[in-house]
Amino acid sequence: MRGAVRAALALAGVTLVAACGTRPDAASAPGPAPAAVPAAVPLSTSLVTGQGAWAVAVMGSGTGGAGGFWQLFARPAGAGRWSLVTPPGVADNGGLVAAGGGSSLVVGVRPSQNLVFSPLATSTDAGRSWTPGLLDAGLADAPGAIALSPSGRLLAVLRDGTIEAAPTAGAAAAGRWTVLTTFGALAASAQGRSCGLEGVTAVSFGPNESPIAAGGCARPGAAGVFTDAGGTWRSAGLRLPGPAGRSRVRVLGLAADAGGNVALLAAGGSVLAAWRDGARWTVSAPVAGSVRALGFGGGGSSWLLLGDGRAESTGGPGRPWEALPPVPAGTQVLAPGAGGGYEALAVDRASLTVWRLDRGAWVPVQQLTVPIQSGSSG
Amino acid sequence: MPGMNSGLSPGDPVLIAAFRSALLHQGVIALVMIVLLGLAGATLRVWPTRTADADGAAAAGAGNPEPRGRRLLRTGFGVLWIFDGLLQAQPKMAGGLATQVIGPAAASSPAWVQHLVNWGGTIWSYHPVEAAAASVWIQVGIGAWLIAAGGGAWSRLAGAASVAWGLIVWVFGESFGGIFAPGLSWLTGAPGGVLCYVAAGALIALPPDAWRSHRSGRWLLAGFGVFFAGMAVLQAWPGRGSWQGTVLANTGHGKPGPLAGMVREMAATPQPHVLSALLSGFASFVARHGFAVNLVVVLALAGLGALFLTGRPRLVRYGVAAGIVCCLATWVLVQDLGFLGGLGTDPNSMIPLILLFSAGYLALIPVSQEAPEAVTTGWRAQLRPGTLGRTVASARRRWVTAAGALAVIVLGAAPMAAAAADRTADPILALAIAGDSSRLDLPAPGFSLTDQTGRTVSLDSLRGKVVLMTFLDPVCTTDCPIIAQELKQAGRMLGAQAARVELVAVVANPTYRSVAFTRAFDRQEGLASVPNWLYLTGSLGQLRPVWRHYGVEVENLPAGAMAAHNDLAVVIDAAGNIRREVGADPGPGTDGTQSSFAVLLSQYARDALGPA
Description:
The complex is a heterodimer of chains A (378) and B (612). By secondary structure, chain A is mainly β. Chain A has helices spanning 2-20, 169-173, 183-188, 190-195, and strands at 45-49, 52-60, 68-76, 83-84, 96-101, 104-109, 118-123, 131-135, 146-148, 154-157, 163-166, 178-181, 197-205, 211-217, 224-229, 232-235, 249-257, 260-267, 270-276, 281-283, 287-288, 291-296, 302-306, 311-314, 322-324, 331-336, 342-348, 351-358, 361-369. Chain A has one domain (45-369): Methylamine Dehydrogenase, Chain H (7 Propeller), CATH 2.130.10. In chain A, strand 18 and strand 19 (270-276) form a beta hairpin. Chain B has a six-stranded mixed sheet with strand order 3-12-11-6-7-8. Chain B is flat. Classes of the chains: A mainly beta (378), B alpha+beta (612).
């Protein structure tokens, strides 16, 4: 009997020891399928203001973290060459978010490492000089997280989805922002509930400089674009037709244009452009693919860099997507060219090469070496 | 694991020098204590009667012989503890144990193990010199105690000490011997070499009667039988990679399996060429014949388990011989002697295992020479002058040696306990980063700037208080927030004296320098409510002379880099004279270095305050 007990104890001990040291085979363990939520869009982008064209790209030894340094390039109106105009005085490893309005450009620096708020910089001379400003909170990780109106009014999306507003550039310089709404309040509003708001990704200004907020919706077919009407957020009335109307929709980018607004939306593995002329929306046909970068030009035009190296552009409201030739290796950003067409900005660590689309082919037209201060933020 | 990483290099010369100095000082104290105890022992020797001396010696020698198995454990593990203590005296141990030994050992364990180990590692990283010196003396002390104590209650206490310290090392140093981590294997040292020290200590601490019976040996060997059988099952368990000499890497090419890979890594560590060549050859052999090697290991373990479980002396003898061969082969070919390469702290598990099962065998076999213990019955008999004298005489030598060993243990344990109770880090970490600062007595350059509330503050207006001053960039992403926390902590450490100290920072950024930024920085760092905190700024015309006069170079760098400035702190006394200038580069900026800088700054502030 005693021998049997000893044997049983030994067997139990052996099994326990074996179980302790056995690693489950991760590859064979079935798990839930990933939720069908489109991935966030990188901050690399370009935009056009009255001062010229601007492009944001990350350079250095990595696409993020302390090794990646975000750079701002400008090509002043009427000029043919790009120059480095990254605002000085602050480490921008967390990313840059740029927005244009009137004759100004504002750049928000996303916090990184031990910094938790977002310094700002505003230029009215194509990046030759900068005026510092302050957003005393962390800016959201989205290329549309900041908006500037022609009168100098600012909107910013914070990391927690709160939308803050500064009435003037002076107020922004002094860090005087007020909360316009929180993500919780927006999601709890009738319109937010109706779309099942999942997050705020972009802000802009509509007619009469009324704030517009956009995000992702859990409810298929609902596009989360809202306008602020005197403190009440209302749906901007965007509906997606066809198969996109049966998919979950996320607003990837939002911009103001002279006649209204333009939005780029991801829905069911495709991307669509939507234009609003102040009252009515026009929606483009979908273009299939996942977005690697996007940007806006003048007149409602926009471009997409897709995951497989393809590039697409559209010229404005009602215009179809047009495929561009496969972009050069390292291309992070497209930007409207000085003489029409497009330019591709390709990055290789500290080197930027500008390629111009010339008669159906990309031709290198400029090379810039950026003095990356490797190790300065690590 | 943040707590256990001081961030300093194990080879930091300041840490090494401080560790050597601590060992030297404590060594001198240990020597003095041993000499004093020796003198005390010599004095005691002449105290009892001559008859008692002679009889006592005879009684100690013949009446109460120590069982051979116990003696093997006591002397064997005594030698091992001393050897481990000497390994702990390696120069890089103070700065390297937490990051190079404890951290990697815990890395693959579950979160709760990592949390526990990190908690213990924090004590080490905050007080590396005290902790490293303590480990040396505690282990040497336990070893000496085990060897010298012989039999009796003192030697049982030495066993208990071995259990207590062994458990601490097993939990915090070996992360429970890795038993909660995947990949557990007898070959690599499971369930932890120090657990053998614990087991041996527990056996030594058993009452003498337990060693008189053969049952103890039988149980010990049966335990080993179960252990070896369990390890055989574990080694044979499919899906753990034990059977594969090579595995398919993501690249599509073959790479060494777990055992071959580990041996190959060990072969690459610095050690005599003969050993590294032997290991490399064995790693290649395992890579080629992984299945066969594992089959041999599984069969050997299963065979050993079966032999030990029989409990028959003749079969167990074969088991012991085979076990010694297997353990020695594993010790050389797989464990690389346990302590070679890197910061070895012990010879790993094989030698302790050999000692343990050999002791079990010695306890199992009958020995005719072992006379039964002489028992003196009745309290009256025990109190007779002759018996009492014998008892005193036999206990005297053990008493003195045990007291000496205990003194050595206390010599290490007391400073470590005091350090562990102190929640602030040793300033040696800050000195290692910043270097020592000499005392100064220079008039501090004046300034007039604006604080975070918009008030004008000049150096003259701070006269009468000690000023801890530094230069901070309000949008800095790395050092400045850490330095601010160091000042804040230093202020807290000053207690009531903080009312006589101003913590002052001057903006060090040519662009982002408005009051809005100093306020934002204060909110970020929780400084807005610190009553003696001032963050000063001004126009570039005001700031540049201050930067220049205090030797701070500030400039904007291009391409998305932080504004550059050197990190320094100055201590200005109540009369407006600079008393210290400290390099304030926070180094790795870990919790330990942050606390260490705070201690250093608060010490300098106290020096400048002078007597209250």
